[in-house]
Amino acid sequence: MVERHSGVHDHDAEQRGIHDGGWVEVSSRAGQITLRAQITDRVAPGVVYTTFHHPETGANVVTTENSDWATNCPEYKVTAVQVMPTRRIPERATPEQVLRAAEQQIAK
Question: For 56-69, what is each residue's pLDDT tens digit?
Answer without folding.
Answer: 667 777 877 777 77
